[in-house]
Design a protein that fits this description.
With about 350 residues, the protein is an alpha/beta fold. The protein folds into two domains: about 1-240, Rossmann fold, CATH 3.40.50.300; about 245-360, Heat Shock Protein 90 (2-Layer Sandwich). Helix content is about 35%, strand content about 30%. Helix 3 (about 100-110) crosses helix 4 (about 115-130), helix 5 (about 145-155) packs parallel to helix 6 (about 175-190) and helix 10 runs antiparallel to helix 11. It binds adenosine-5'-diphosphate and magnesium ion. The site of adenosine-5'-diphosphate has 9 residues, from helix 1.
Length: about 350
């Protein structure tokens, strides 16, 4: 359905030097495929998507859609725009139009659909993304997750053959990521062809037929999701997919903003789809912090999560302590049992600056 060969894109820097964003992109995408594009930022993922729908005309190479070279001189851009829809990180809704008007705009304006028909199909698309109730309100009254669902409905209104998503959930509060991803999952089930630039690794692994790992302006690795995540061929891919996510809190005194810490832990757990761990972390902190803070020594708390292995750990590091805080005389056997029942494992070890208590959750 889409065939990209030797695609390049360069920019001329202000000092006259050439900056090659896309170096040599080659790929073929079949109808019904869901491809997640992952990779470090600045490696040309957005530029690649934007060149497929000619928002950023490439420097050289070819892009065939349904057998037609869209880079050929005189190729009608509007024809390609009808086949290829795009959803952006920042929604790009028209703020002066209602939700339904946003969805009806392109079919009326570009496809010259009769108003009543556009209204009917617009409403049915809004129903599909769960927003029929919001048809007559303005986008400013919606949450980020709702705005992005409107943007998806608006894109679907043109009946595209393929949809390009550029980090559709990156601008959202963590609590709203799920509602947008579930709409995309639904489209995947219906067989929509999609290219999705995303940092949501679990989602990418579940939903994609293939993964493109982009690095340094090329598709560095291309393969089925299982292979790319579990058995990557290149070390750069491995380093990327095995990344560890973390949230660190440095507590120097009792004046520390513990409420903010609690919020950040909750957000972290929602973001990485481990909501069940959130309460557990709060509970463990409540149990241990009175002991760990009693001696007035700097305490660092670190929550780490590996998206790939789905393992979460909670570290307490106390500076200037030469023994495990669990050996303190006032730690009761009851508390120790509580800890053991909450964690999969407890490791106690000295560090260069103090002592570390590591809890596997
Ligand atoms: P990604 O989406 O992977 O983070 P991008 O495709 O946005 O990467 O950008 C890749 C590189 O190209 C970045 O270093 C960016 O600064 C550069 N770039 C993107 N657009 C332009 C532009 N219009 N002019 C100059 N440089 C650009
Ligand atoms: Mg980008």
């Amino acid at each position: 359905m889409i065939k990209v060969s030797h695609l390049t894109k360069s920019y001329i820097d202000p000092d006259g030097s050439i900056f090659r964003v896309l170096k040599d992109i080659n790929c073929e995408i079949e109808q019904g495929e869901v491809i997640s594009i992952i990779g470090p930022s600045g490696t040309g993922k957005s530029t690649f998507l934007r060149s497929i729908n000619l928002l950023d005309p490439p420097t050289s190479g070819s892009i065939y859609i349904d057998g037609e070279n869209i880079l050929a001189k005189g190729y009608p851009v509007h024809k390609m725009r009808q086949k290829v829809g795009m959803v952006f990180q920042n929604f790009n809704l028209f703020d002066h139009m209602t939700v339904l008007e946003n969805v009806m705009y392109a079919p009326c304006k570009i496809k010259k659909e009769p108003l009543e028909q556009a209204r009917k199909s617009g409403l049915s698309l809004l129903r599909k993304v769960g927003l029929a109730e919001k048809a007559d309100v303005y986008p400013s009254t919606l949450s980020g997750g709702q705005k992005q669902r409107v943007a998806i409905a608006r894109c679907l209104a043109m009946k595209p053959e393929v949809i390009l998503f550029d980090e559709p959930t990156s601008a959202l509060d963590p609590t709203m990521v799920g509602e947008v991803l579930s709409v995309i999952r639904k489209l995947a089930k219906e067989g929509m062809t999609m290219l999705i630039v995303t940092h949501e690794m679990k989602f990418a692994r579940d939903v994609s037929t293939r993964i493109f790992f982009m690095n340094e302006g090329i598709i560095y690795e291309d393969g089925p999701a299982k292979q790319v995540f579990e058995n990557p061929r290149h070390s750069a891919t491995k380093a990327f997919v095995q990344r560890i996510r973390k949230e660190v809190f440095e507590i120097d005194s009792l004046d520390f903003d513990f409420l903010d810490m609690s919020t950040r832990i909750q957000q972290f757990c929602i973001k990485y789809d481990i909501p069940e761990v959130s309460k557990m972390i709060q509970k463990l902190c409540q149990l241990l912090m009175p002991y760990l803070l009693a001696e007035d020594k700097p305490l660092t708390i670190r929550v780490t999560h590996s998206e790939l292995s789905d393992e979460t750990t909670l570290d307490f590091m106390v500076e200037g302590l030469d023994h495990s805080p669990l050996l303190e005389p006032d730690i009761t056997s009851e508390l120790r049992e509580d800890l053991q029942s909450l964690c999969k494992g407890i490791t106690e070890e000295p560090t260069s600056r103090g002592f570390r208590l590591k809890l596997s959750l």
